[in-house]
Amino acid sequence: MKSRNALASSMGRPLTGAVQAGAARPMTAVSAAGYSSSLTRGPAFDPLGQARGPAPPLEEKNEDAPEEKIKMLEKKVYDLVLESCMAQSSGNF
Fold first, then answer.
1. Are 5 and 21 in contact (CB under 8 A)?
2. What are the backbone angles phi and psi of residue 14, rounded to the nearest 5°?
3. How far apart are the C-alpha atoms of 66 and 68, rounded to whole Å?
4. Radius of gyration, alpha carbons of the chain
5. What is the pLDDT of residue 81?
6. Spatial distance between the Cα atoms of 93 and 81, rounded to a whole number of angstroms
7. Domain count of the fold of the chain
8. Which stretches does the entry tag as region Disordered (predicted)?
9. Residue 86: what pLDDT?
10. Is 78 part of any domain?
11. Is 87 within the bounds of a domain?
């Protein structure tokens, strides 16, 4: 009878996931993900950037900017239109 190193199926071929003795696994997916066997390591994985410390303080809003004045006027107009609609629906016009 013949001796086999890898597990074989009923047809005599090695199974898909069977590892033959002495065969190293391919490193294609591992190296593509950024892993290496060297001891020197690059920067640690930090997707949120927490190692850099807190963010600088936010910039203060300038109330005198034209955009802010326009927003305030738009809000006043909206409030007046809403008040007018409410008065119309209740008959107080």
1. yes
2. -65, 150
3. 5
4. 35
5. 97
6. 13
7. 1
8. 1-23, 41-66
9. 94
10. yes
11. yes
Domain limits for position 77: 65-92
- Identify whether 49 is part of a domain: no
Q: How far is CA 65 from CA 38, 49, 87, 90, in A?
A: 56, 33, 33, 38
Please, are residues 22 and 15 in contact by the beta-carbon 8 Å criterion? no
C-beta contacts of 2-7 below 8 A and 24+ residues apart: none
First to last CA, the chain: 105
- Token representation of residue 90: 């209740």
Residues in Cβ contact with 49 at an 8 Å cutoff, skipping those fewer than 6 apart:
none
- 69 lies in some domain: yes
- Specify the residue for token string 């008065």: 87
- Residue 52, phi then psi, degrees to nearest 5: -80, -10
Q: Residue by residue, what is the 3-state secondary structure of 34-73?
A: CCCCCCCCCCCCCCCCHHHCCCCCCCCCCCCCHHHHHHHH
Structure confidence at residue 84 (pLDDT): 94
Show the low-confidence residues of the chain (pLDDT under 70): 1-32, 36-43, 93
